[in-house]
Every structure is written in C-alpha cells, then in structure tokens.
Design goal:
Blueprint (H helix, E strand, L loop, with lengths): L3 E3 L2 E2 L10 H6 L6 H9 L6 H14 L1
Antiparallel strand pairs: 1-2
C-alpha cells in the first residue's frame, strides 16, 4: 500500500537522508549538547503508580 498525503507525492518519494529530523522537529542543532541533555530528561520507564493505574484500567475494560 502506498500512502499519499496529496495526489502529487507519495511518502516513499520523500528523501530524508540529508535531513536532521531532531532539528526540523524541535529546532535543535544536533551538533550541540542541548539535544543529549533534553533526551536524558525523557523517562523511558514509567513510574510504578502509572503502571498500576494502567493495569487497573485494563482490568476494568475486560
């Protein structure tokens, strides 16, 4: 399946090899220290309370 957002171009034709996605998305210059520091602030493991709430909600739905 070929996804298109307009009749003129499909996503497979968009080339991003030379594009810095972080810079485009958030205005960061990836060569600088601020990108690493910002990414370190992102919590990849949710807190226990959040996990418990999610389990509780799933159980209620089933």
């Amino acid at each position: 399946m070929v996804l298109t957002s307009t009749p003129l171009i499909s996503y497979s034709k968009i080339r991003v090899e030379d594009t810095d996605l972080y810079e485009d998305a958030w205005g960061f210059n990836a060569e600088f220290y601020d990108v690493i520091q910002t990414l370190r602030q992102i919590k990849t493991i949710p807190r226990k309370k959040l996990t418990e709430k999610l389990i509780e909600r799933i159980r209620r739905e089933n």
